[in-house]
Write a structure and sequence with these properties.
10-stranded antiparallel sheet
Length: 471
């Protein structure tokens, strides 16, 4: 179905079609445009307007609406998804320590927001550490945004809407004009486009096998000397592709292959960070908190018997159980000052993904009064599942041994609203620039780790994405 242009625009214009005007999405856009036209400036106040629309795949909507500044989040149970174009209001910081100030700014903006329809949601994340150099220069250590235009799905209900924010009249008018043009170009039912099959032309690893064996030996020596109990070493694989991938389309296929995962996409001019992570950092609804200890990895089996065998290994292998136990103990220890009670009695279960499987233990808690979101982020991030234990000793070792900075990889990504917050650990992720894809994977090193086995685990964690690229 063709797109209707309701406002003049230098690019992307399409002929007017009565059919588009008459459908529900066209009517929703016209309503939003009418509300935008009547909207009086509210300087220094976030304005949020949304209208209920029929069900629509949020990632598909992003695919149909190319934009240099796209953002996306979908939680693991698919009960909430947010797709954004542009940004109305952003809170950022160059230092992770400033996450307290950023969270306070978000909370203040939410408290003061003027909303029609749903309530505003901020989407973003924070990096593993403050080393946002090299490939990561376009991103901040902490960054959250309210999209300019968005499509949101919550428990089966879909809403199309916009956010506006400025402290000056000139800024308000500029953002309003940008939004007016964006609404006029929105497409909801684009004709299917033939997808060009991609190809990996070149591959370069940040570690070669010899360098990997040396780094693992140094890590095991530090563990033997009692400096730490676990360290997570990560590797970056740089791929040159035949052509630039379509990020929402790639993320759609990635999500479909691993449906029980968090999906995310964060953009800066010319750069996109995307991922499909199985790991929750935490979800908070008022005083209730849920998190999990997820660690220990083995491949999926070639058949049902092999798959069962690997699953039993996860539950019984001493090395894998140690790796997992350290994560659980860390989480309980870090949360204890903020919780009235913590329930760690749930038995570990196996999380099965397309190429690998993990050991996972749910953890639930009741928070003490007045616990702030930034305190939970600082307490839990980064967990031993992506850093190590003790945390500072593991960070020091990582800085010394890893040849490239992690940036947002193994950071935290999620959404913040006045209804609650939810964060995933930004693993199974990649950074994209034009036709270059920088893929990350990590493994936990504990006493008993073997270099060749850990190298194979790194490959297993990358396998799902590598297969998708050339499909």
């Amino acid at each position: 179905m063709s797109e209707q242009l309701l406002d003049s625009s230098p690019t992307g214009t399409r002929p007017e079609t009565a059919a588009w005007l008459d459908n529900a999405f066209g009517l929703a856009v016209r309503q939003l445009q009418e509300r935008l036209a009547r909207l009086l400036p509210r300087l220094g106040q976030l304005v949020h307007v949304s209208i209920e629309v029929p069900g629509l795949d949020t990632l598909g909507w992003l695919t149909d609406n190319p934009h240099p500044d796209q953002s996306y989040w979908q939680n693991r149970d698919s009960q909430f998804a947010l797709a954004g174009l542009g940004q109305a209001l952003a809170f950022e910081a160059d230092d992770i320590v400033e996450v307290e100030r950023v969270m306070a700014d978000i909370e203040r903006a939410l408290d003061q927001a003027h909303s029609t329809g749903s309530r505003p949601v901020f989407l973003g994340g924070l990096s593993f550490d403050n080393q946002m150099t090299g490939l990561w220069q376009a991103f901040k250590a902490v960054s959250f945004r309210a999209p300019l235009c968005f499509l949101q799905q919550q428990q089966g209900q879909h809403e199309l809407g916009f956010n506006l924010y400025s402290t000056t009249l000139a800024g308000w008018q500029h953002q309003r004009t940008s939004l007016k043009r964006l609404l006029a170009r929105l497409c909801f039912d684009a004709q299917p486009r033939a997808r060009k099959k991609n190809r990996i032309g070149q591959r370069q690893d940040s570690f070669d096998p010899d360098g990997w064996r040396d780094s693992l030996a140094q890590t095991l020596k530090a563990i033997e000397q009692g400096q730490l109990k676990k360290a997570v070493l990560a590797r970056r694989v740089d791929l040159t592709l035949a052509h630039a991938p379509n990020m929402p389309e790639l993320l759609t296929r990635w999500r479909n292959k691993n449906p029980a995962s968090f999906s995310f996409l964060l953009s800066q001019p010319g750069w996109q960070f995307l991922g499909c992570s199985p790991e929750r950092l935490f979800v908070r609804r008022q005083h209730r908190l849920a998190t999990e200890a997820i660690a220990g990895t083995l491949p999926r089996g070639q058949n049902r018997a092999d798959d069962f065998f690997y699953g039993q290994q996860l539950l019984t292998d001493p090395k894998l159980r140690l790796e997992h136990r350290l994560v659980g103990e860390f989480i309980s220890q870090q949360l204890r000052p903020y919780c009235a009670d913590i329930n760690t009695q749930y038995q570990p279960h196996i999380v099965k993904l397309s190429a690998i499987q993990h050991l996972c233990q749910p953890i639930h808690a009741n928070l003490k009064p007045a616990v702030r979101n930034h305190a939970l982020l600082q307490a839990l991030h980064p967990t031993p599942a992506v850093c190590g234990y003790p945390r500072q000793a593991a960070k020091t070792l990582i800085d010394a041994l890893e040849p490239v900075g992690r940036g947002l990889y193994s950071g935290a990504v999620g959404v913040v609203s006045d209804a609650g917050v939810e964060f995933a650990v930004a693993i199974r992720s990649a950074l994209c620039h034009n036709n270059r894809l920088f893929c990350y994977s990590g493994v936990g090193i504990v006493k008993g780790s073997v270099a060749e086995q850990e190298w194979q685990e790194l490959e297993s964690k990358l396998q799902s994405l590598l297969e998708l690229i050339e499909q």
